[in-house]
Design goal:
Shape: elongated
CATH architecture of the largest domain: Sandwich
CATH topology of the largest domain: Tumour Suppressor Smad4
Largest sheet: 8 strands, antiparallel
Structural class: alpha/beta
Number of helices: 4
Helix content: 10-25%
Length: 237
């Protein structure tokens, strides 16, 4: 931490929260940290909010690998990505002055949609129908056809994201230190035409999962990247 002194605070602007962030800024400056207004100049990015705010902070600042991310919770509990509570400044001071910060590296999923630049997800990618109609998806693992899926959609989760949306659809809980990602189904149909694995499965990070959207008239799925959604108006891959 001694060579990281530029802090950028990411939070949703409101009168009450802005005042508290200003207090955090004064506290950091008291211990020789610099507060920057441009996240590109920071080497420490601090989100103030909850896990959703942390995900937004990472996404909107470009998943920087040359920067430390820290989360400060404004709720009554510490969350998955928040190690400090807003009112517990003594713990923050101890971490700054006694070098008690543990740095953890969280895996991300790289997503490529047709010819667009890649996207990244820290928790999960979800692919769901935007209308009351099932999706038909062809899944390939390392360019080998694995299955043809028909149902509401699928979730591709990181080891740290598997306890979120993935767990709610009976996905497995994976040790976050394992380099892998998990694929879980959303309400799959199994009949004489379509037959899927019927359970979540785990792939190593050296694997490539390719998803092709079937041309059955439902060509506009919703793609969820962590806590953001984007609507695809082209073919999905």
């Amino acid at each position: 931490m001694t060579n990281r002194r530029n802090i950028y605070f990411f939070y949703k602007k409101s009168a009450g929260l802005t005042e508290k962030v200003q207090h955090l800024s004064h506290l950091a400056q008291r211990y020789s940290y610099n507060i920057v207004k441009d996240f590109k100049e920071a080497n420490i990015i601090v989100s103030v909010g909850g896990d959703g705010t942390f995900l937004q902070a990472v996404r909107k600042t470009g998943y920087r690998e040359d920067c430390l991310y820290a989360g400060i919770s404004t709720t009554g509990n510490l969350n998955m990505y928040c190690d400090f509570h807003l009112d517990d400044t003594s713990k923050m001071i101890d971490s700054m002055t006694m070098e008690q910060i543990e740095v953890r590296r969280y895996p991300t999923i790289e997503i490529k949609l047709d010819e667009q630049p890649p996207f990244y997800a820290l928790n999960e990618l979800s692919l769901r129908s935007s209308v009351i109609k099932t999706l038909v998806l062809d899944l390939f693992i390392d360019d080998l056809h694995f299955e043809t899926f028909r149902g509401d959609g699928i979730i591709v989760a990181t080891p740290t994201g598997n306890t979120a949306y993935n767990k709610s659809v009976n996905g497995s809980i994976v040790d976050p230190t394992l380099p892998c990602f998990q694929v879980s189904e959303l309400a799959s149909l199994n009949n004489n035409t379509y037959r899927t694995l019927g359970s979540s499965f785990i792939l190593g990070t050296d694997r490539t999962l390719t998803i092709l959207l079937g041309q059955d008239g439902n060509n506009h799925p919703i793609i969820g990247l962590d806590n953001e959604a984007m609507s695809d108006r082209t073919s999905t891959k």
